[in-house]
Amino acid sequence: MGGFNLQELMSKAKSQYEDLQKKMQATVVEATSGGGTVTAKMDGRKQLLSLRIDPEAVKSGDVEMLQDLVLAAVNEAARKVDSQMQSTVGGMLGGLGIPGL
């Protein structure tokens, strides 16, 4: 069958899965909202690592606006993780050598 070796393919897939897990742990993205008022850092597993809020935002007393800025920063960080992981996984799948991928 054209040299298609399932065991070799599975071995490559396992190795690439382990590589992906390491990359997810090592990946850190940062997103801001409100012109830098809120900054969220997230890793590739979508664990929030830090959240920084400019003290001036608290002084305004507008809690709803601050909540919206936090949500926006966290959601943008999650989108950045998705984008980075999608490009990483896409590159890894191409390296498996499966016809049609």
Task: Summarize the entry for a quick read.
With 101 residues, the protein is α+β, with helices and mostly antiparallel strands.
Question: What gap, in angstroms, lies between the N and C termini?
Answer: 17 Å
Q: How many H/I helices?
A: 3
Question: What's the overall average pLDDT, rounded?
Answer: 86
Main sheet strand line-up:
1-2-3
**What is the CATH fold-level name of the domain at 21-83?**
Ybab, Chain: A
The major sheet is characterized as: 3 strands, antiparallel
Q: Given the C-alpha coordinates, what overall shape results? A: rod-shaped
Which H/E pattern describes the elements? HEEEHH
Strand content bin: 15-25%
Helical amount = 55-70%
Low-confidence stretches: none
Rg value: 20 Å
What is the CATH architecture term of the domain at 21-83?
2-Layer Sandwich
Number of strands: 3
Could you name the CATH homologous superfamily of the domain at 21-83?
Answer: Nucleoid-associated protein YbaB-like domain
Q: Pairing-aware structural class of the strands and helices?
A: alpha+beta
Which class of the domain at 21-83 in CATH terms?
Answer: Alpha Beta
